[in-house]
Amino acid sequence: MKFILIVNPFSGKRQGLEIFKKIEKKFNSKQIDLTLITTEFPGHAEKIIKECNFENYNGILMIGGDGTFHEIVNGMFNRRDKKKIPIGIIPGGTGNSFMLDLGITDPNVAVDKILMNKTRFIDVIKLDMGQTVKYSINLVGWGMITDIGFTAENLRWMGNARYTISAIIQIFFKNYRKAEFEVNGKRSVKDFMFVVACNSIHVGKGMRMAPKAKLDDGLMDIIVVDSNISRIRLLSVLPKLFKGTHIDEPEVQYYQSNKFSLIPNKYDSLIIDGEMIGKTPIVAEVIPSSIEIFA
After folding, report:
1. What separation, in Å, do the N-terminal and C-terminal C-alpha atoms of the chain show?
2. Could you tell me which of 86, 106, 105, 111 has the C-alpha nearest to residue 4?
3. Section 123-144 average pLDDT
4. Using 50, 70 and 90 to split pLDDT, how confident is the model at 97?
5. Binning pLDDT at 50, 70 and 90, where does residue 38 land?
6. Fold of domain 2-117
7. Interaxial angle between packed helices 161-173 and 144-153, expressed in degrees from 0 to 180 and rounded to the nearest 10
8. pLDDT at residue 107 tops 80
9. Catalytic residue check, 66
10. CA distances from 203 to 13, 49, 100, 123 (A)
C-alpha cells in the first residue's frame, strides 16, 4: 500500500515531525510506502491535495489538527477531476475536536486504525458565502463565538486556558448582532448572541457543543442563543458546555437540519473548523456521506 502523509509541523504543540518519527516504524513493519510532505504555510495542505495525482495512492494520511483536516477536505472538493480517496487522521493539533467524536486521541491508536484498513463515510457541510464556498467537517460559528476566537488568538501565551478566559471577557462585553436566520422553514429576524452549526459533538478543547450530533446522519446540529440572555446566565451556562447539558437551558435553542441560512445586518466574520476564514452572509447545507475516512 502507498499513502501520501501530510505533516503540519506548526499544528498544536509543534510536535508533528516528532509524532511521525514515533509512528514511522509501524508503517515500515507493514511494508507501507509513505510519501512525506511537510506543510510550509496556511493553505498548503489544501493546495497539495488539489494538485496531487492520486493515481498510485491508496489514501491520504495527515498529522495535525482540525485545521489540517479542513484543508485536506477542501482540497479534495476543489479538485478538477473530483476524485476522492480515504483520509487517515493522526491527531497532532491543539484540540483535535473531530477525533474526540471518534474516540481516537492517541497517535498510535490512530495508526492502528489506519492499518486495519477499515473506513466509514462522514457528512460535510457546504458553506456558500456568495463569492466563496468552503467545506466544514467540524463547525461554523457566528457572533460571540467569533469574538471569543479573535480574543483567544491574542492570548495564545495562556495555553488552553485562553478559551475560557476569552469567553468570560466576551460575556462581559456581551456584543449582540441583528440577523435574519432561517432553519426548517422557520424564519426570524432579531438580535442574536451567537449561532453555531456543528457536524460533530465536540468543539474547542473538549466542549460538547452539540451532544446529539452524529457524523453521518445527514444533519447539522445548530445551537442558537438570543440576545435576551443576561451576563449572569451566560456565565452559568458556560461550564455546562463541557458536559453538553447547556442545551437543557431555556435560553438555548437546538435545531437539527440539513440546511440553514444566516444574513446579518452587517458583513461579519465566521469561524470555520477553528479558523477565522469565513464571511457572512451564508447558506449552509449538508453533503451526506461525502468523505471517506479510516476509522
Report:
1. 17
2. 86
3. 97
4. confident
5. very high
6. Rossmann fold (3.40.50)
7. 130
8. yes
9. yes
10. 18, 25, 9, 16
Give yes or no for a contact between 102 and 109, defined as CB atoms under 8 angstroms apart.
no
Distance separating alpha carbons of residues 47 and 122, to the nearest angstrom: 22
Average predicted confidence (pLDDT) for the chain: 94
- Using only C-alpha atoms, what is the Rg of the chain? 19
Residues 6+ apart with CB under 8 A from 218: 123, 258, 286, 288, 289
Q: pLDDT tens digits, residue range 222-253?
A: 999 999 999 999 999 989 999 999 999 999 99
pTM over 0.90: yes
Name the grid cell of 203: 468543539
* Separation between Cα atoms, residue 295 and residue 288, nearest integer Å: 17
Element (H, E) at 189: strand 186-198
14 bridge partner residues: none
Cell 510519501 sits on residue:
35
Rounded to whole angstroms, the Cα distance separating 8 from 250 reads 41
Give me the catalytic one of 66, 123, 147, 273: 66
Rounded to 10 deg, the angle between the 16-29 and 107-115 helix axes is 30
What's the CATH number for 133-289? Answer: 2.60.200.40
Phi and psi at 147, nearest 5°, equal -60, -45
- Residue 244 and residue 208 in contact, taking contact as beta carbons nearer than 8 Å: yes
Name the residue ranges covered by the structural domains of the chain: 2-117, 133-289
